[in-house]
Design a protein that fits this description.
single chain, 2 helices, SpoVT-AbrB domain-containing protein
Length: 69
């Protein structure tokens, strides 16, 4: 495995290393989509303003329901 390593904090947040944020032009407040593959791979993708991902609302609702249980 290569790449940069970071940690998850007590609130479940992951800090993206500065080099990655600069390289992808990510700024405070930018939205990202998160998905995972069955092999443990996590995918983060920057969302352009005005773009809605198919199923994103449904996924968010499931995540919110699970976290409140």
């Amino acid at each position: 495995m290569s790449g940069l390593i970071t940690n998850i904090d007590a609130n479940g947040r992951v800090q993206l290393p500065l080099a990655i944020r600069y390289g992808l032009d990510l700024c405070t407040g930018d939205r990202i989509a998160i998905d995972h593959l069955g092999d443990g791979t996590i995918i983060l993708k920057k969302i352009d303003d005005g773009v809605t991902l198919k199923g994103a609302d449904r996924s968010n609702a499931r995540a919110e329901k699970a976290s409140s249980s």
